[in-house]
Design brief:
The structure holds two protein chains of two kinds. By secondary structure, chain A is mainly α. Chain A is built from seven helices and no strands. Chain B is an alpha+beta fold. Helix content of chain B is 20%, strand content 34%. Chain B has helices at 5-24, 73-78, and strands at residues 39-49, 56-61, 64-69, 91-98, 106-114, 117-120. The longest helix of chain B has 20 residues, at 5-24. Classes of the chains: A mainly alpha, B alpha+beta. Chain A binds chain B through residues 17-21, 24, 28, 47, 50-52, 86-87, 90, 124-125, 127, 130-131, 133-134, 137-138, 141-142, 145, 148-149, 151-154, and chain B through 1, 4-5, 7-8, 10-11, 14-15, 18, 22, 25-29, 49-53, 73-74, 77. Chain B: Pfam families: DUF6152.
Chain lengths: 154, 129
């Protein structure tokens, strides 16, 4: 594991990013952009599930936001991996980083359970779905906060 | 569905509490987390990192390992401090400001002296001559 992390730090692309005056802040900005889009789409989607903005058609609204959330998560994953790579061994040893990864896994698992429950794209009338939506809001928001703390604890 | 906004209200409350906690713990970017007066640390370098988001040294001072933050890499390198001018085991003097949290072995340096050479990574924040 230690060798793998040290190896990541030595990749040519990572070494270039480590010292770059321009690339690193751009990757950082794109990460912020991705997580902003992710959190916004998750919040709007979950609030719609919880019964907000009832005038908007449920299926179309959630389908659009789910696609936005997927694209944003992919962007956050790529840019986040790049930010991680420049000091991989240091970040991997930080409890707050591991907390963030655990929260992402929990949020992902919550999403899979939600998708099994909410088949068909109809307005869910089920109390379990309400709990899952609230969990989703709390987990993704916690991921954001945990991520922000990485920058202040290393 | 019945009264879903009970859930929403508790989420909003949770978010507010977390925001308050995050604000209270704000530190380690800029200089706001450091003390006013100049602080000097002498010791042996145990690790050197020159890269984003900012360069750091780990310094063993009488058995305690300190983390010394420097400037972002471009600024640190522009000050002449590169991976070639110092190595693990070298004696270093770091001058700057230490963390306001006394339990933290952590400082941000504006000047470091290694192998008889002085590098001002924050030239506008060095002690008066």
């Amino acid at each position: 594991m230690d060798e793998l992390l040290a190896g990541i730090e030595q990749l040519a692309l990572v070494r270039a990013l480590k010292a770059s005056f321009v690339a690193y802040p751009i990757v950082n900005a794109l990460h912020i952009m991705s997580i902003g889009a992710l959190l916004t789409s998750v919040w709007l989607m979950d609030l719609r599930v919880l019964g907000a903005f009832r005038s908007l058609p449920y299926a179309a609204f959630t389908a659009l936001l789910r696609r936005t959330a997927f694209a944003a998560f992919a962007g956050a994953l790529v840019t986040g991996s790049l930010l991680f790579s420049v000091r991989a061994s240091e970040y991997a040893a930080m409890p707050i980083f591991l907390t963030k990864m655990t929260l992402i896994l929990l949020a992902g698992a919550n999403f899979l359970v939600f998708m099994r429950r909410a088949k068909g794209g109809d307005e869910p009338a089920d109390g379990t779905v309400t709990i899952l939506a609230v969990l989703s809001l709390m987990l993704w928001t916690s991921v954001l906060f945990a991520g922000r703390f990485i920058g202040f604890l290393n | 569905m019945q009264s879903p906004f009970n859930g929403v209200r508790s989420v909003a409350l949770t978010a507010a509490v977390m925001l308050a906690a995050a604000t209270a713990a704000y530190a380690h970017h800029g200089w706001s987390w450091t003390e006013e007066g100049f602080f000097e640390l002498r010791g042996k370098i145990t690790a050197i990192y020159i890269g984003n988001p900012h360069a750091t040294l780990d310094v063993d001072a009488e058995g305690e390992v300190w983390r010394v933050d420097l400037a972002p890499p471009s600024r640190t390198i522009a000050a002449g401090f590169t991976e070639e001018v110092a190595k693990v085991g070298d004696e270093v003097t770091a001058i700057g400001h230490r963390s306001r949290d006394e339990t933290e072995k952590w400082m941000k340096a504006s000047r470091i002296i290694v192998n008889g050479k002085t590098y001002d990574v924050y030239p506008d924040r060095v002690p008066p001559a």
